[in-house]
Amino acid sequence: MRGKFEEQLKQLDNMLIEMGALIETSIVTAALALQEQNIELAKKVISYEEDIDQKERAIELLCLKLLLQQQPVARDLRVISAALKMITDMERIGDQASDISEITIHLSEAPYQKKLEHIPQMAAAAVKMVKNSIDAFVKKDLKLAEAVIKYDDVVDELFDTVKFDLIELIRTDNTSGVQAMDLLMVAKYFERIGDHAENIAEWVVFSITGKHKEEQ
């Protein structure tokens, strides 16, 4: 009985890795589409949403099956509960990559009035957080999860830099307001992706220690 349970937990890890890989691809592709003002790439990101939703439902079904059929002990219960929380944040990351791509399609109508510099850096930092948070869950790596939580400061600092850059752009060029506001919204979505990755890492900490930030 325990052997089958361990097998299903391994399956859960593999499904989370697959969903994680898809949302990483979504973020990377969304960032590339933004930089290149590439409508086709942006549409590809939007098309990933359905696959991400399907993976969320499949993981949710497996978790419920494990809870109902296997009667897991305390530590296993934490792992399954954390996975259920994590996929909600993962699905929202997919939504935000899609939202960025919707804005990218609108932004493709005119060339950028200022070269994108810090937004791609935000995207790379967000991808790193997402990847490491899921790796931390699979590897049961507390230090890696804690590092992800701390790394959110990097994304927040980059967002502040983008915000000030765009304010300066509007101040020096009063024709840039609409584009600057769209880019600020893109940066905000990348910041939120970082926040969701931080949430995932906090649930990883819970799965390992039994303690969650909300309870402290």
Structure write-up:
The chain is mainly alpha-helical and 216 residues long. The chain has a single domain, classed as Methane Monooxygenase Hydroxylase, Chain G, domain 1 (Up-down Bundle). 87% of the residues lie in helices and 0% in strands. It contains six helices and no strands. The chain has helices spanning 2-36, 39-70, 74-107, 118-139, 142-172, 177-209. Helix 2 packs antiparallel against helix 3 (74-107), helix 4 (118-139) packs antiparallel against helix 5 (142-172) and helix 5 (142-172) packs antiparallel against helix 6 (177-209). The mean pLDDT is 93.
Give a brief description:
The protein has 216 residues and is mainly alpha-helical. The chain is built from six helices and no strands.
